[in-house]
Amino acid sequence: MKTRHVEIGRYAALVALALAPICFLPAAAQTPQGDPKDTEQWEPVPPIVTPGAHPDAPPSDAIVLFDGRNLDQWVNTKDHAPAGWKLGHGVMTVDKSVGNIETKQLFKNYQLHLEWLVPKGITGEGQLRGNSGVFLASTAAGDGGYEVQILDSWKNKTYVNGQAASIYKQSPPLVNAMRPPGEWQTYDIVWTAPVFASDGTVKTPAYVTVFHNGVLVQNHYQLTGETRYIGQPSYRPYDRAPIKLQAHGDPSAPISFRNIWVRELN
Q: Closest by alpha carbon to 223, among 94, 136, 106?
């Protein structure tokens, strides 16, 4: 009987061992082999760029498009005459009778900063309240190009791919980061222009990243073509293009802009 009890005890011990959680001991740390200098890069040395005095100020390599003093960097889109929007108190305000304005200079890939203001007490609903837009590449007169929507989206319902910080009629913003009317809004945009083959076909599409009031709202979004009010987006070849600001024809009070600068990217 003693032998039988020993065998049963051994069997129970084996079962307990089999059911016990398995513990893995960490392997001994391996000493890296080779020369650490093999993965060090020393050239080319990045150029020095001095940041602005505050987060929204232009860095040392920026092209200042508007600093509140004049509209010298802008022309009317329809006739390329000197920009006719209203200037005062360090801001420029949309003049809807003049129409859109655009930069004299043409751009390809860039980082853009701009600030805009919906006037306090603005009236209207949906798309008829503080409507404007920044066209990242103005490829034709009128509203041709690639638009990031500007609109009063503070407690103002509209189609989501047409609210503030949307890629118009293509991509709603990830979140609504709108401040109320009467407070300044900021856009910080990284634009990667499309590249076209010699026959006009698209080699690489356009991409855009947008921060609205410091909040990421478009994350390297791939555009399917130019933004259109009616119809599906499509591409048409271009190389460099101006940046355009829209004078929308809605009846609400016009919006204003300040502190616009751009950094060209290779």
A: 136
- How far, in Å, CA of 191 to CA of 194, rounded? 9
What are the tokens at 96? 């809807």
Q: Domain-by-domain residue ranges, the chain? A: 63-264
> What's the mean pLDDT when you consider all of the chain?
91
- Quick count: other Cβ atoms within 10 Å of Cβ 225? 16
User: In the CATH hierarchy, which fold is given to the domain comprising 63-264?
Assistant: Jelly Rolls (2.60.120)
Q: What is the CA radius of gyration of the chain?
A: 29
First vs last C-alpha separation in the chain: 88
Could you tell me the two tokens for 188? Answer: 């910080």
pTM exceeds 0.85: yes
Compute the distance between CA of residue 262 and CA of residue 64 in angstroms, rounded to an integer: 7
* pLDDT, tens only, 40-78: 999 999 999 999 999 999 999 999 999 999 999 999 999
Question: Residue 138: which of 112, 108, 164, 114 has the closest Cα?
Answer: 108
Strands (E), the chain: 63-66, 74-76, 86-88, 91-93, 101-103, 110-117, 132-135, 147-150, 184-192, 195-196, 202-204, 207-212, 215-222, 244-245, 256-264
